[in-house]
Amino acid sequence: MATVELRFSALPEHVRTARLVAAAVARRAGVDESVLDEVRLAVGEACSRAVGLHQHGDAGGAVRVALIDQEKRFVIEVGDGAGSLSELGASGDGDAGESPDVSDDALGLAVITGLVEEVEVGRDEDGGLIRMSWPVNPA
Question: Which domains does the chain have, with CATH numbers?
């Protein structure tokens, strides 16, 4: 199992780099070409969400992206260090009357769920963690 790890400052301009690296590693891992746009978009949404949570809560630390090439799946984990702020839209039950940050967070999670066949939204010791996976073509 090969793993590529990225850590970047919670700045919007770094999201594009994460998307490009994720697509390149996914292609090399054997993810079907027709799915690479979905990989790029899902990683962009997850990283943008993490950046937004960091900026909203003035959280320190970095956004973490792990790209994991397993035998039959390609897994991407995007983690933030935003602590309890990571739970804002995780339930997906945000009301229109809530702050824009909460509704944007829920919308971002809905987009990710629509793009990725297998997605888990949870927590680790640093904050939120989004785990997404796609099948790989046999070599």
Answer: 2-135 (3.30.565.10)
